[in-house]
Structures are given as C-alpha cells and as structure tokens.
Amino acid sequence: MFSTVLNLNFLHKALIALLLLNPVLLIAQEDRAGADEGLNSDSEIAEKEPRRVKRLGDSSTADWEIDLSMPAGPVGQGQGSDYDLPDAEQNARLQSLLSSLATTPGNQEAMASLDKLLSEILEQAGEQARLGQPDEMQQLLSVVRSVNPQQAGLAEASRKLQGLRNVDDWLVAASQAMEADKIIDPVNGNAMHFLEQVLAVDPENQFAHASLLRAQRILIERALKAAQELDFELAEEWLYEASIVRQPQDLVIEASQQIDGYQLRQIDTFEQDILSAIEAGNYDAAEFVMIDLIALIGNDQRVQTLRTRLNYAKRYGLYSPGEIIQDALKDEQDTAPAVVVIKAGSFLMGSTDRESGRSENEGPQHRVTLRRGFALGLHEVTVGQFRLFTKSKRHRTQAETVGSSKVYDEKSGRITDRQGVSWKHDYEGRPARDNDPVIHVDWYDAQAYADWLTEQTGFQYRLPTEAEYEYAIRAGSMTRYWWGDGSPGDPLENLTGTEDESASGRHWTAGFRRYEDGYWGPAPAASFVPNSLGIFDLAGNVSEWVEDCWHPTYSQAPLDGSAWVNPGCERRVVRGGYWASSKDQARSAARISAGAGLHGPRVGIRIARDL
C-alpha cells in the first residue's frame, strides 16, 4: 500500500499531469456533479464557468510549483512515455487506475490495486534481469519510478539493473583474472569476485557458470598436484576452495577420492620404508620417515604401533628378550654360537662394604643403565666352534705360538706349565671334546674369534662388556650369587664343592659346603641349569674374558654399560668363577685382573652380539 504522505504526493503529481493533458476527464467529473444536484439556472452555470476555466488552466504557475513536476508527454499516449507499459493489458489497467485515482484521489481500493500492479511490474523486471535484458528491464522500472519512486523493491531492482549493465565488464575482468591465475586472490581482484557479481544480477548467465566450472577445475588441479607432492594439508585447502566455487560437487568428490588414494598409498610406502629401515638396523632413517608419517596422519594407532616397534628394535633389533639367535656362517655349513637376547634395564653394579668376601676393586657401587638390549652367548664358546675359526682364518693362538700352556697337575694339585698344549686340549692337557668349553686362549684370541664371527655373519659380534656380564649374571638379583647368598642346594653350576672329588680322591677344602656337581675340571658347556635369563655357566665352569681394561675401582666408570677401555692397556678384566675358584670368585660382583696374554685351564670365551 502507498504511504499516506510521501507516496500520495507523487501520485498526486501523476494524476494532475493526467488531468492537465486530458481535460475531458475533469469536465466529465463536473458535469456528473451537476447532474447529481439537478438542473441549474443559466446564471448558476455562468457563475461556475469562470471557476471551471481557472481550474483547467488559468491558474498561475506558482500555484503548482510547490509539488509538481510535469510529465514530458501525454499519459498513455504514444511510445516512450514514462507511463507506457509494453504489455497492452497491463498498460490499460495502469491508465484505468490512474484515471480512477484522478477522479477519486482517496480511493483506497484503487490505490491497493495500483500497488499490486507495480509489484507485478517489478517481478517482470526481475525476470528480464534473469534473462539478461537490461533495456526491457529499464522500461518497466521507469514506469514504476514515474508512478511511485518509493515503491518497495524498486531500489533493489535498480541496483540489479545497474549491475546487469556492468555484466560484460565483469565477465571480461573475470577472464583476465583467470588467465593471470588469480582465481581466489587477491581480494576484490580475483576471478571469483567478478563472477559472483555477475551471478548476483544475472543468475543464469551461462558464460559465468562455464567460468565457475573452469575455476573449480583449476583449483582441483592444484589440489591434485599438492597431493602428488605429498603436501596433503595444502591439497585439502585447495579442495575446500574448489568445493565452494559451485554447488555441483561431483568433480570435488572424484578429486577427493583420488587424493585419498594418493594418501593411502603414501602411508603404505612410509610404513614399508620404516619397517625396512628397522630391519636393516638403520634406526635414524626410520625416525626421519616416522616424522613424515606423523605429519601425514598424525599420531594415530598406526603410528603408535610403528613407534613401539622402532623403540623395541632400538633395544632388541628384530628380536624379543629371551629369544635365541644362531646366525649362519657364510663360509661354513654351520652357525655362530647361540646367543640369548637380553632385555634392556638398569642395575646396581659392584658390591657394598657389607657384602661378605668382597674386594675393594668392586666399589664404589653405582647404577648402570643399559638402554639397548644385547645378546649374550648361551654358554661358553666350545672347542668345536673355535675349531671352525682356526680352520677358516688359519689362526694360531698365543699358546700355539709359544708352544705351551698351563694345565692342572693331579699329582701335585697345582697349575703347571706344559709344552705342546693349546686350545685343542682340556684342563689337564689331554685332547678336548668338541663340546668342552675352549680354554688355553688369551684376550687377543677371544677378540679375533669375535671379529671372525662379525665377518662371517654380517652382524656385530664382540666380547661382552664388564657391565653386561654382571647385569646378565645377576639377572635381576641383588644377592651375593645369582641363586642367593649361600651354598646352592642342587647342582646349578660347576663350582668348588666340599663333596666334589678328583680322580685321586682330592677334595676342595674351601668350597661350598655339602655341594657336589660331579665334575673336577670343566664340564661340557651347558651341563647345568641356566639362570633366569636363560644363560648357562656364568658363575662357574670357566671364567671368561670381557672387553674392558682393568681399573682398580669403579670411580669414573661408564654408567651406560659400555666398555671402559684405555687404548693400549695391557691388563683386561676376567669375569665369572671357574671349576677351581674360591666361593668368593663365584659372586656376581667378583672381578679379576689378568694380563691380556694370559692363557691356561681357567679362562675361556663367551661372545656378545649387538642387536
């Protein structure tokens, strides 16, 4: 409905213009009024005549200038009038309503009908905008503006018309921006900005829709390229931008599936690279690939599983604690000595001042933490295993070089030197059995054997460190011996027991009380029970060389379990009890200093392997 003040003002102008250019309407109105009042005398008619003439045109211009702008031509007469509609039926309705309001200015029904008609005209103008016909739209809006400049929706339609006239310029600007690869940037200067302006005034513009499709494809290509370069975060951003360009999402969905495929394949590739690096022992490379995988999928369950496996491999390689490893020898139809995987851990190394039988060289007690697992020989190296080495490398031991070694003499009950004794012999100088622990070897022979195993297997073999040996013999215990603080009840190791007896009836006077293991001299390797880590003969049978140089105390000793070595040192550490050692030497903390060239019936070899 027209407003009661402002809109009526404009309506009055239109109506006055209509009357001034069509005086017949006003005369007819006057005549009808006279008929209603009855016949008048000639004098009454003469009195009214001057007034009629004055109303029809004799008034001064000043009487109208206050609120009247005269139309340019007759209302409803000829082409191009501000009140002329292209539709004849609508035009007739408009002229009729304006005439009605001219004769009855307060006619509410006519005013409502006129408002409705103007709204219809605006709807038609909107349809012309949709069809991209600005001239036709202009003609309709001109009529509405002439009748009622305040008509609801007119201002919006006028803005749309102005935009419609700018469509060609915006389309050119959009094409230029797209050619310059400015799809979404910079702000207010990108192709999307211009296309959105076009579609705001011309929603059906085919060129604009085709340009949107092109823009979406360009953004999708960017997403796919980023994915192929493994930048999936950027690919996701480009794909999102492509999704908001136009409503149809079929191309975006297809691209998303492609990117998901790239990502899954890359995840699989990363996983295989990590596993391969772990298997090769290249843990640094595995860590680098793990970073890429985390960047790709976050710290999800798949990453956590690989992380656990990598950390486990850093400690134990591809193995589990307690697992037994036997590596093949490349030049022999045989294997390296069996080794047992020892779990990483921490322990107190050495003994306290209160421990019975301790030596000053066992202190100060200190905590050692082995952050990586290692493998330790299941038992001592045997004569048969050492024979493969000497045959393959044509190695001559120190005993063979000097032509003698020390043996146990049953007659005297002492250790004496004897000519012609080497690793091929037992503790008394007789031919050794293949499953006897090899003896009559010095530290250099033991080191050469470990180096040969590395060469033959491709894995790092070595002598155990002193800390590793004590960690293994303790097996989590804090007692004097790995089995407890006193004499073992059952045969656990080849130790000196008071019930042991030699061939000639000799007995150990300072051995474990009431203990008998059935051997005088070394027993075949692994003849007794293992400790809780699954390792045999650590506290007895034969003592064993370790990697470390001898130091009289543990002051400044490594805390990570590594070997404590001074280049060129001449004395090394021997660990573990042997078949004739005192009870104190069978303790877990006991250690002995020996020249690196020592060889005889008491010390053998146990190897370690890195994982």
A few lines on this structure:
The chain has 611 residues and is of the alpha+beta class. It has helices at residues 6-21, 23-37, 42-58, 62-65, 88-103, 108-130, 134-147, 154-179, 191-201, 206-228, 232-243, 250-279, 283-297, 301-316, 383-393, 398-402, 443-457, 466-474, and strands at 324-325, 339-342, 345-349, 366-370, 374-377, 404-409, 414-419, 461-462, 543-549, 571-575, 591-595, 603-604, 608-609. It has a five-stranded antiparallel sheet.
Structure description:
The chain has helices spanning 6-21, 23-37, 42-58, 62-65, 88-103, 108-130, 134-147, 154-179, 191-201, 206-228, 232-243, 250-279, 283-297, 301-316, 383-393, 398-402, 443-457, 466-474, and strands spanning 324-325, 339-342, 345-349, 366-370, 374-377, 404-409, 414-419, 461-462, 543-549, 571-575, 591-595, 603-604, 608-609. It has 611 residues and is of the alpha+beta class. A 5-stranded antiparallel beta sheet has the order 1-2-5-13-8. The relative contact order is 0.07. Mean pLDDT is 86; it is low at 1-9 and 16-80.
List the helices and strands and how they pair.
Layout: H1 6-21, H2 23-37, H3 42-58, H4 62-65, H5 88-103, H6 108-130, H7 134-147, H8 154-179, H9 191-201, H10 206-228, H11 232-243, H12 250-279, H13 283-297, H14 301-316, E1 324-325, E2 339-342, E3 345-349, E4 366-370, E5 374-377, H15 383-393, H16 398-402, E6 404-409, E7 414-419, H17 443-457, E8 461-462, H18 466-474, E9 543-549, E10 571-575, E11 591-595, E12 603-604, E13 608-609
Parallel strand pairs: 9-12
Antiparallel strand pairs: 1-2, 2-5, 3-4, 5-13, 6-7, 8-13, 9-10, 10-11
Helix pairs in contact: 1-2, 1-5, 5-6, 6-7, 6-8, 7-8, 8-9, 8-10, 9-10, 10-11, 10-12, 11-12, 12-13, 12-14, 13-14
